[in-house]
Amino acid sequence: MYFILPLLIYMAAVFLLPLLFVLFTSVVSETSGQLTLEFFERFFTHGLYLRVLKTTLEISLIGTALTLLIAYPIAYYLAKQTPKRRSYLTLLILLPFYTSILVKAFAFMVVLGYNGVVNDAIRLVLGEDFVLPLLFNRFGVMIGVVHDMVPFMVFPIVINLLAQNSSIHKAAEIMGATRTRIFWSIIFPLSLPAVAAGSLLVIIRLMGQFVTPALLGGRTDIMMSNLISFHIKDALDWNMAAAVSIVLLLLSCLILLALTRVRGAQLFGEQPRHG
Amino acid sequence: MDKERDVEALGGSAPSPLVATAAWLGFVYLLLPSLIIIPMSFGDTREIVFPPATYTLDLYREYFTNPTWTGSTIQSIRIAVIATLAGLALGTSAAYGIVRGSFRGKVLLGALLLSPFFVPAVVKALGFYIYFAALGIQGTTLSVVLGHTLFVTPYVMIVMMAALRNVDAQIEAAGMIMGASRIYVFRKVTLPMLRNALIAAGLFAFLMSFDEMIIAFFLSGFGTATLPVKMYESIVHEVSPVLSAISALLTFLALVICLAVTALSGRSGRQPSH
After folding, report:
1. Fewer CB within 10 Å of terminal CB in chain A, N or C?
2. Is the CB of A71 inside 8 Å of chain B's CB atoms?
3. Of A204, A98, A141, which is closest to residue B120 (Cα–Cα)?
4. Which segments of chain B have a pLDDT < 70?
5. In this structure, what DSSP letter does residue A185 have?
6. Residues A217, A136: contact at Cβ < 8 Å?
């Protein structure tokens, strides 16, 4: 127990207290010093804030669905490999996972811009007049955030697929089930807890995205994190920055709560229980 | 996990061509930024195009001689080293307490200690900003170090908790039966067995802090900006070609740390779990 004490004290001083300061700032006006709910009222009535909330939820949900779509085949393919090949191929997932988000965003600006790699190729094939708007819009944001999230989804699904009891698959095969049938009626349903856990983890992380919407998105792709930064750095409105933060924090807590409810989600590296 | 069962995972048959194609398209998408950035970094200083018209080392020269970039890089290294050491101390100790301890509410406490991981970075950053402003240290290097220590500690804890579960608690028990104190056993028996995991956790924490931009963006002042903050400002305002060289160097750093961490955790993970 004493071993936990240093971190507990540190967290009380450098995590809990700062969060309480945010909470305080969200309900006590900087100008009048009065206790008030006006900043939350403004959040839930003004078009700007509601639009940003909607954008944040849209990017998080659609981004999660696209991430799953790309991550599942990768996870399935990895699970099918021999351990040696799998460990090499896993490096292809780990490298982008370890790479700075700024590097990734910068690279996608080069790939997707008007004079970027994709548009150069399109011009080469279709002629000078063809340009696709791929950057500074929702498409650019999606390319960036999905890229950032795929590893978070691949890892839990691979662990699940490898832990599945292969005798069940064998039994189904012997009884004449096709590969497609085995996948859809055994493998996929058994992997759903990992899919749910991965998806919730990805939603939480997507809701807090800052760099990608700021660099790859346009004006209408501003997310809550960018709005908080705008209020602190440019508008100097600490009250609204705090109110938006509290809403974002509550949304994250709600999803975290759902995450703890997922059976067999293997949160925090707990060993899976048998039986 | 034994090999035979592993090979037969999911029924053993090879993945269908459709799955293989989808997976490899996914790999290409994931590796695209790294593959683009490396040739770009050898371009010239006038424009950012892929592929570059001429291949030079000018961008690297520009990076290593411009005090804005070298200064912020040194600042990033300083912060990351101190935050890593502090995070290793706090995280390893707490991981030991959670894994070896037996008390009520252990699972809940473990979740609480890892909770900073789930709080959006901007919310943490805003909290630090308001709190450190009240303490009068906002904008200092110390404030970024304190913030980054909190940021890297959950990662250290996750790695060290997994490693501790692989260390046989009975060896520690033997030490204590022979009269050594718990602290002595932790220092002389447990820590040496955790050496690989500690190096892996340390390297990972260093990279996390070195690359972290949001907390540093909120907390650093004019003279204390880190490399990622300078990069972000450059991308927003002018998009300097030197960013290609910095990105290539950061990708190389990520690759080295990725390989080192993988090698280290592979070696310590071989022990059979009980």
Report:
1. C
2. yes
3. A204
4. 1-13, 267-274
5. I
6. yes
The predicted complex's ipTM stands at 0.92
CB count, 10 Å around CB of A90?
Answer: 18
CB-side neighbour CA atoms (13 Å) of A124 = 7
CA dihedral B254, B255, B259, B262 (to 10 degrees): 50
Contact list, A91 vs chain B (CB under 8 Å): 258-259, 262
Domains of chain A from N-terminus onward: 20-267 (1.10.3720.10)
Neighboring chain B residues of A95 at a CB cutoff of 8 Å = 30-31, 34, 251, 254-255, 258
Mean pLDDT per 10-residue interval, chain A, length 275 residues: 92 98 97 95 96 98 98 96 92 96 95 87 86 93 98 96 90 90 93 95 96 96 97 95 98 90 54 37
Domain boundaries, chain B: 68-268
Dihedral sign, Cα of residue B126, residue B130, residue B132, residue B138: positive
- Cβ contacts of B258 within 8 Å, gap of 6 or more: A91, A94, A95, A97, A98
User: Is B101 near chain A, with CB under 8 Å?
Assistant: yes
The answer to whether the CB atoms of A1 and B7 lie below 8 A apart is no
Please name the fold of domain B68-268: MetI-like fold (1.10.3720)
State the Cα–Cα distance between residues A243 and A161, nearest whole angstrom.
42
